[in-house]
Specification:
Elements (H helix, E strand, L loop, with lengths): L1 E4 L4 H12 L3 E8 L3 E17 L7 E8 L6 E8 L3 E6 L5 E7 L3 E6 L15
Antiparallel strand pairs: 1-6, 2-3, 2-8, 3-4, 4-5, 6-7, 7-8
């Protein structure tokens, strides 16, 4: 089940979502409208989701995953260019299974279910 997040709520929603789910393991997949699907990151901890919506002509949402430590930070940042829609993905029982970010060229799937991390994550992001 997908629940669309209103555009005016994106900044607060993504800050809350990031805080609630930071360090939870996810898979990150990008589905390009022309080139098809490819895995951006597999079984990586979520570090954060940061919107940059100041430039109305070129807004972005950055999803960062990976490991941060003192010696060798290993992170991946995937940018959603000109985001159009953001959806919270839940089961019918309200268990969080992911997030869908649709941009101008495709969509990005942040997936807890594929990483096997859905237990007990019931959310109410109203």
């Amino acid at each position: 089940m997908l629940k669309e997040i209103k555009k005016e709520d994106w900044k607060k929603f993504l800050a809350d979502f990031s805080a609630m789910n930071q360090a939870k393991v996810i898979d990150l997949v990008y589905e390009d409208k022309e080139l098809g699907s490819h895995v951006v990151a597999k079984y990586q901890p979520l570090l954060g989701i940061e919107p940059d919506l100041k430039d109305e002509n070129f807004p972005t949402v950055d999803v960062t995953v990976g490991e941060v430590n003192d010696t060798e930070p290993a992170t991946i940042t995937h940018s959603v260019i000109r985001p159009e829609h953001i959806y919270l993905k839940q089961t019918d029982d309200g268990v969080l299974v992911g997030l869908v970010l649709e941009g101008m060229d495709g969509r990005t799937l942040l997936d807890f279910a594929a990483a096997g991390k859905t237990e007990g994550m019931i959310v109410n992001m109203e």
